[in-house]
Amino acid sequence: MDEPGAYELFQQGTQLLEAGDHHAATVPLSRAAELAPDKDSVREAYGRALFLAQRYSEAAAEFEAVVEHAPTNDYALFCLGRSLQQLGKDAEALKPLTLAATLQPQRADYAKYRDQARRKVA
Asked: What would be the CATH architecture of the domain defined by 1-54?
């Protein structure tokens, strides 16, 4: 039997992610990210799974890769900032959180965490 491709692995991983099985989702999404390292959607889903599995350092690395490729991806910026916050790196988190909130000023959650980081850094 053939090995599943990046798309099949991505589908499996996102189904697990949507079902709330964050730890299990990291397995197929990790493999999908290896097979398709330039696919932002794959890296973003993998980062979400890592974040929800409380693997914040690895999540930050995935979101950083997405932001390097797509610097105006507000969701990836937000998730990068949140990952850094979870690691206690509020000063580092402030820039991506501020960018995300600037790109999507209507998002109250973006502003909430940006302001939280600002207060901790001040």
From this structure: Alpha Horseshoe (1.25)
